[in-house]
Amino acid sequence: MYLISLLQSGIASLELGTLGAAFGAGMAAIAAAIGIGKIGSSAMEAIARQPEFANDIRMSMIVSAALVESASLFAIVVCFMAL
Predict the structure, then answer these.
(1) DSSP calls for 20-80
(2) Domain boundaries, position 57
(3) CA atoms of 31 and 45, how far apart (whole Å)
(4) What's the structural domain count of the chain?
(5) Residue 2 in 3-state DSSP?
(6) Cα(first)–Cα(last) distance of the chain, in Å?
């Protein structure tokens, strides 16, 4: 009887862990989308204000977006490793 209850609690915690990993991966993807959107919006506004610095702003935007994307990819991989 004790073994059955132990197995049932193990299965319940496994499902909760799976749910947590899926929720974490989803939140990381949403946060990355919001971050990259904000970076793009700010870069376009900066280019509109000072068009002579468009190349420098664009390069900074690409580097910043790559950093956000790599951080979110790392978070998603960590969430999938929790499965």
Answers:
(1) HHHHHHHHHHHHHHHHHHHHHHHHHHHHHH-GGGHHHHHHHHHHHHHHHHHHHHHHHHHHH
(2) 2-81
(3) 21
(4) 1
(5) helix
(6) 28
Query: Which two tokens mark 62?
Result: 């690409």
User: What's the CATH code of the domain at 7?
Assistant: 1.20.20.10
Q: The pTM is what?
A: 0.75
Report yes or no: 29 and 73 within 8 Å, Cβ to Cβ.
no
Report how far residue 68's alpha carbon sits from residue 14's, in angstroms, rounded to the nearest whole number: 30
- What is the Cβ-side half-sphere exposure of residue 23, based on CA atoms within 13 angstroms? 6
Rg (alpha carbons) of the chain, rounded to whole number: 21
| pLDDT of the chain, 83 residues: tens digit per residue | 555 664 555 555 567 778 888 889 999 999 999 999 999 999 999 999 999 999 999 999 999 999 999 999 999 999 888 77
In this structure, what token pair is assigned to residue 23? 């929720």
